[in-house]
Amino acid sequence: MALDRWIALVLLSICLLYGYTAWLTMDANLAPFMQRKPIWPSTFPKVLSIFGIVLSLIILLGLEKAEQTVGEIDYRKLHEYKLGQAILILGLMVVYAICLRPIGFLGSTTAFLVLGSFILGERKWLVMFTVSLLTAGIIWYLVQEVLGIFLRPLPFFLGN
Amino acid sequence: MFEGILIGLQTALSLQNIIMVIGGCLIGTFIGMLPGLGPMSIIAIMIPIAISLGDPSAALILLAGVYYGAIFGGSTSSILLNAPGVAGTVASSFDGYPMAMQGKAGKALTIAAIASFAGGTIGAILLMIFAPMLSSVALLFHSAEYFGLMVVGLSAIAAFAGNGQVAKALMMTVLGLMMATVGLGSLFNMPRFTGGIMELQSGFGFVTLAMAMFALPEAIFLVLKPKNLGDSGGEIKDLRISRAEARAIAPVIGRQSVQGFFIGVLPGAGATIASFLGYAVERNIAPKHEQAEFGKGSIKGLAAPETANNAACTGSFVPLLTLGIPGSGTTAILLGALIALNVTPGPRLMIDEPQIFWAVIMSMFIGNLVLLVLNLPLIPYIAKVLAIPRNYLIPFILFFTLMGAYIGQNNATELLLLVGFGVCGIALKFANFPLPPLLIGFILGGMLEDNFARSMQLYGGISFIWERPMTLGLLIIAVTLVLLPSFRAMRTRAKGN
């Protein structure tokens, strides 16, 4: 089965779950005054769930005639691309999200930029560190000191 | 009116105010490039500085400069990095980013700058002439008409529904609309589809979703299939627009300046609807061979939303200055600044304090001109961003997407959501599902439901659809625009057989 049909199957499941919530559970705790109104919080979601189910079935069953086109990247030949680098980069983003608060903005951002370049094959350590440190410092100054949006610069054990 | 223009020019052309407008445009442009910091946040940040000036004209001139600068800055990140930081510049990335990918970054930025200048300037002329008259027309638009307008805005998805992709484009739109229903919602004040998760009470963040669907998949595709963006044609810095190209975009700019302005006048519509509508209209009236170019780097597809969003920003000043009604979040903040400066916008502003009213209008002309003069020489340097080697550029793009999501919500969970949605975006892109319709549905979904619900409550059902001719007309236009590609495809297949 082609990837778009697998995705349609996932979307169908999401729409069914969404529809179940809209049709069967959402109105249970509706206040009496709300029940007298012509539109309920579930009205729009109910309509959307029907559209969603019909459309995902059209894609899943291949009812719309479409030319088979390969996108920018052929997912059937993923091994021919730099898949490892892509997965590592996504993993690095997750680690950055988790470490941003405890390690602080300056340390985690510098590490993210240096490791990101490293994963992609860069080995000019001096350039990597200089550029990363400068970027982290400038962005921190701009966001926190100029714009007044709090970004903890240092690790939690060194205070704010 | 002439007297007013002279008063306005005298005020706006003082040395202090010229410095204000230049400073505002520069600050707005550079901060606006950061995804997550749209005009609203930048103006909010600048308010204390504006108020400290003490002079209402200077303060408004500074804030108007920041406003225009931020919109242009937002377009820059949309075009170069496919990272639209605000909803009003999403449509600019549909064709701006493909142009940048084809090595035409300089040309794309020049078209954006010229279209923005023209949209802002023509909008300011219309504001000058029609402001008092239009304020009463804007009030005739009710929720039923707004609902119709939102549905026409949704028809912009038709641009992504070619080649038998109607079902996929519609599915993505419905998915976006579904995502917009998550959270408390403004009308019902009841959590929906949150699954008891507190973080979802305020719904999904726009910036998070925009970054996850646009910038992140693009960056990961660049990792998977390495190429240096600067290698695409060697004309990255080239700003020149040929005579034929200028002739092609001139009517688009003319039409969208007027259309965008009038949409901007309607409270609540604003730059986002104007840009999507502008894109949809221009695509649908373009000759057939040009329609195929939309979404793949069409200059008309870039000029239309860029002109429309700037003209709409100018239009949004009509209800603010003449009625004291803020038509958008940004003008609401400007209203707050005006009140803090002891100026009460409304019908009497033009009579009681003409120097402020006219100075703001004149500053729009000067602001747009300054923006063009400042930005054109900077474009080659801004476009050089794409010439940064891939090994450095990709981590930077990803860092800015993360920062955009973090600044918008100030919440680290948002970053995990960004990566999660990003992975979904990559899978959808692999399977050729068009992603812009998802974002269009998400952006317009909340407003669409609110106006639909209000109309239902007012009319006690869906009778408003046929009882209000303008709503019915708008809905028929929208359905035609969406279904047209399908009919065309069917006709072509029938001819082929």
From TrEMBL, chain A:
The keyword Transmembrane helix applies. Pfam families: TctB (PF07331). The chain crosses the membrane at residues 6-26, 47-63, 83-104, 125-143. The keyword tRNA processing does not apply. This is Putative tricarboxylic transport membrane protein. Residues 6-151 form the DUF1468 domain. Keywords: Membrane, Transmembrane, Transmembrane helix.
UniProtKB/TrEMBL annotation, chain B:
Residues 18-439 form the DUF112 domain. The keyword Signal does not apply. It comes from the Bacteria. The chain crosses the membrane at residues 12-34, 40-68, 108-134, 146-162, 169-188, 200-224, 261-281, 325-344, 356-379, 391-408, 468-487. The keyword Membrane applies. It holds the Pfam family TctA. Keywords: Membrane, Transmembrane, Transmembrane helix. PANTHER family: TRICARBOXYLIC TRANSPORT PROTEIN. This is Putative tricarboxylic transport membrane protein. It comes from Yoonia tamlensis.
